[in-house]
Amino acid sequence: MTLAQPPVDRFRISPLIKVTLLSFYTALLLPLPFLAQVTDAPVDPKVLVLLAMLGAAFLGAGLSEQVQTTDKGISMVSPLPWRGWSLKWSEIKSLKPRSTGQNGTVYYFITEAVDRAYLLPMRVVGFARLVRTVEAKTGIDTQDVTPLAQPWMYLFLLVMTGFLLLMDAWTVWTANHGGLVG
Fold this sequence. Notes:
alpha+beta, four-stranded antiparallel beta sheet, three-stranded antiparallel beta sheet, elongated
């Protein structure tokens, strides 16, 4: 006889955010191995490729995180073992806003444990539904809680990343055709 598991509501990171951040990462690192080879840099291009792939794996794992809610509580599930957390609804006493360096606001779950606060994930699909769930389960007023960044900001970054990738293509082509060696 198996016990029925409570229904789980999952909130994954927005695909727009995933694509944008992975593309931006690629655009920043793509030309480095080519430039290292052309300029005879002291770092082997193969090492740069290996490190970039390792970084991409960590970034991809971070972007695979998801928030899960049940009748019992909320958890942030991550493939990175040091990143996940789980709270019972009854443990959450308040949401505390904190200003960011970019003039935004993030929110932390405050519990009775004085030494810990847990970041409310804000870049998930269905953020408004997540906030409504938090309010319904904890009784905390969440009417002032808004997403940190609007989708148009990530769309703008994605378009700019496209331009950066075009510059990368030109840089790699130029490097492979002797245009950067003087």
